[in-house]
Design goal:
Number of domains: 3
CATH architecture of the largest domain: Orthogonal Bundle
CATH superfamily of the largest domain: Hypothetical protein af1432
CATH class of the largest domain: Mainly Alpha
Radius of gyration: 31 Å
Distance between the termini: 64 Å
Largest sheet: 6 strands, antiparallel
Number of strands: 12
Structural class: alpha+beta
Mean pLDDT: 85
CATH topology of the largest domain: Hypothetical protein af1432
Shape: elongated
Strand content: 15-25%
């Protein structure tokens, strides 16, 4: 083992701390992988490193960036169900609403025409720690399995484990144990799964309602998948001899994996239970075998990566939630008018394209996207009769229509916005301002008008001109564009008009 006070070890930990500082601010998981993996390989003296992240929507481990493996991402499916997960983790699982649980796999329900609501799973483990199988109870009559039910199931699992370990299990005895437990607990069905180590499948030795059909669950996950599910690090210095190793990637790439160190990324944020958010894998140490010191060092790196990954995930979830609320708010305004359904979405797409043509930053494009989506939100305060009037508006109606910009600013001003989005109310409300100062609501002129509002003004007008309105049919794209050109410099910013022309031209060329 390496001396922890040696210059080499001190240098490794210095590089580890430096890596932690450099990745702490990263919010893009793909960028995180690219920044960290080369450094991790150097830190551990390994040939390759891969960062797998948990995708909760698909129940997969996914590595979009894997050193030395170009092309499609590496994907490890993890849909072994609640049963497989609990057994592999050696943890009891008591679930009330099965279909809402991210681990639930409905394949057996589909095969049997059954609907699982509640379930209780208890792993069956040998005295030497080997997994023997698991006990599953389904659909408690009262809706949820109790603490007493858990104790009864664990006692039964102990009995079943003793029989399996001593090779004294026989079908009639297994059935009698399961039926007695099911009746005592008061549930609908019980199943005993045993582990077939040759095929890495959980096979039902007895199943209520199985109709004699063989039931089994695949739990062959590969090393990374096993680490993700169990939350335990794995160090292998003879990978080929381990039956858990999935050779498909080596076969596809022509690479030969010899040694491997794989550790989980575990999030322990807040008061919630810890959960695995990814897996960090290093392959083929250049000199010798991976040792306990390497494992400790990689677990330290993984702890830092887990914090960064969790922050990035929370940031992404908050962003998606915010944008979905913005889209819902925009759709509610579009529905207010008889001919404006979809207007906000089309305007957003075109405005963002213009922003990109103008070289806006990612942050400014995000602000532009939201401001464009909500630019007409004040329309909810305008009478339907005015919004959908088939003829010209009289002066009083024009005045009411113009109020929508001020209402937009007022409504959006009530939202607690992050620092980046604080200009949102003013930008959204300024889309009817004109370069010569003849617009409303404030009569701003030239550079007094926020630049993003100038983009919205040109794009919104163009989109409105080529769409049907209650008071006129849609204009042709040629006629609409000519009106935009005629107002360039007076109403619209010429720089924005030129960018919009390029976007429209590219759209026409590319269909």
């Amino acid at each position: 083992m390496m001396d922890t006070d040696s210059p080499a070890m001190i240098e490794r930990y210095r590089r580890c701390l430096d890596l932690q500082r450099r990745i702490g601010h990263v919010r893009d998981p793909e960028l995180l992988a690219q920044l960290a993996m080369t450094e991790v390989s150097g830190l551990l003296g390994a040939d390759r490193s891969t960062l797998f992240l948990f995708d909760w929507d698909t129940m997969e481990l996914r590595a979009n960036f894997a050193a030395g493996i170009p092309g499609r991402p590496l994907v490890v499916p993890l849909r072994m169900g609640i049963v497989g997960t609990a057994i592999l983790r050696r943890e009891l699982a008591n679930v009330t609403n099965a279909y809402a649980h991210p681990y639930f796999n409905p394949e057996i329900d589909s095969a049997l025409g059954y609907k699982t609501d509640s379930l209780l799973v208890v792993p069956i483990v040998a005295t030497d720690g080997r997994i023997l199988g698991g006990l599953e109870l389904l659909n408690k009559a009262s809706g949820r399995f109790t603490d007493d039910d858990e104790r009864l199931a664990m006692a039964s699992a102990t009995n079943l484990g003793r029989w399996l370990e001593q090779d004294r299990a026989y079908p009639a005895g297994l059935e009698a144990e399961i039926v007695a437990l099911r009746n005592n607990v008061g549930c609908d069905r019980g199943t005993l799964f045993t582990l077939d180590t040759a095929t890495s499948r959980l096979v039902a030795a007895y199943a209520d309602g199985g109709d004699g059909r063989p039931l089994s669950l695949n739990i062959k996950l590969g090393i990374a998948g096993m680490v993700a599910v169990t939350g335990q690090s794995v160090c292998l210095n003879d990978v080929a001899a381990d039956p858990r190793f999935n050779r498909s990637v080596d076969h596809r790439t022509g690479y030969q994996t010899q040694t491997m160190l794989c550790v989980p990324l575990v999030s322990r944020s807040g008061d919630s239970e810890s959960e695995t958010v990814g897996v960090l894998q290093v392959i083929n140490k250049h000199a010798g075998a991976f040792d306990a010191e390497d494992e400790n060092l990689l677990e330290a790196v993984a702890a830092s990566l887990a914090i960064t990954v969790e922050n990035a995930r929370l940031f992404g979830e908050q962003r998606r939630q915010f944008l979905s609320m913005v889209e819902a708010m925009a759709a509610s305004v579009d529905a207010h008018g008889a001919t404006t359904v979809g207007h906000s979405g089309r305007t957003v797409s075109r405005a963002v394209a213009v922003g990109r043509a103008l070289g806006l930053s990612t942050d400014d494009l995000e602000l532009l996207r939201v401001a464009t989506a909500l630019h007409d939100h004040g329309m909810i305060g305008v009478d339907d009769a005015v919004v959908n009037k088939a003829g010209p508006l009289d002066p009083a109606e024009q005045s009411q229509m113009r109020r929508h910009t001020g209402l937009t600013e007022e409504i959006l001003g009530h939202i607690h916005l992050s620092r980046h989005f604080r200009p949102l109310p003013l930008i959204a409300a300024a889309h009817h301002e004109a370069m010569d100062g003849s617009g409303y609501p404030r009569g701003l002129r030239g550079h007094e008008i926020p630049f993003l509002a100038r983009i919205i003004a040109a794009v919104d007008t163009y989109e409105a001109l080529i769409a049907d309105r209650p008071y006129r049919p849609a204009l042709t794209t040629e006629a609409a564009w000519q009106l935009i050109l005629d107002e360039s410099g007076r109403r619209f910013d010429p720089v924005v008009v030129a960018a919009l022309e390029k976007v429209l031209s590219d759209t026409n060329v590319n269909g």
